[in-house]
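Researcher: Structure for this, please.
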Amino acid sequence: MDIYFIISLLALGAFTGFFAGLFGIGGGGIMVPMLTLLFVQQQFPSEYILHMALATSMAAIVPTAIASLLTHHKHQAVIWPVVIKITPGILLGTFAGTFLASYLSAAPLAIFFSCFMAFVALQMVLNRKPKPSRQLPAFTGLSATGTGIGAISALVAIGGGTLTVPFLVWCNVSLPVAIGTSAAVGLPIALSGAAGYVVNGLSVENLPAYTLGYVFWPAVVAMAAMSFITAPLGAKLAHRLPIALLKKLFAVLLVGLSVQMLVTVFA
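Model: Predicted structure, token format:
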């Protein structure tokens, strides 16, 4: 590994951590396209580059998810009974999603990722929130919902907040508590996703050194270390900056990164 690669990983971790704190996201939308580009530059096996980017991003979300969970718990913004009931479905869906991702080639994965990020960007620009219209379902309903959220999260390497928050708000959960509960749900998503990508990549040959399964651990360590430093800075600025404008700019960034990843994969 050359020094440029290491510095790039540290910078990516700092950048992702800052925006994770600013917008309350896991950071997969930033990490996956940039890791894809960096892995291409390192001449990693082209057929596995996107799988490695998804896996590494998912593993890097784990420490961020833990820090976010603890912060929201201190503010009593986590509905733990909901977390407990939705987690079995989350674990099943996320783990199964990694098997689907491992089966697919890079091209359909890249297209799905980019389409989903376009959806996330549109949500940010429109800033629409679903109107509360029902109550939280029982265990079976929550578990089924968690399976769907987990499966999609595994395919795009996100913490699930883009899906979990609107669902909880729709079920008459206040927005701050929905965000806090979603942050708690992000931990089993990240853990199950990382574990699934490790299992699916164990039998793959010719992967780079320091890789376990599809997870490239030097990148995980570098990004996690920097995100711990910059995430609190982003969280503080969230209360001082014009978030509505920043979200629109960030949406443009997500679309741009997704397009860049498509070009990288198909080129």
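Researcher: Any notable elements?
Model: The CA atoms of residues 3 and 169 lie 45 Å apart. The mean pLDDT is 86.
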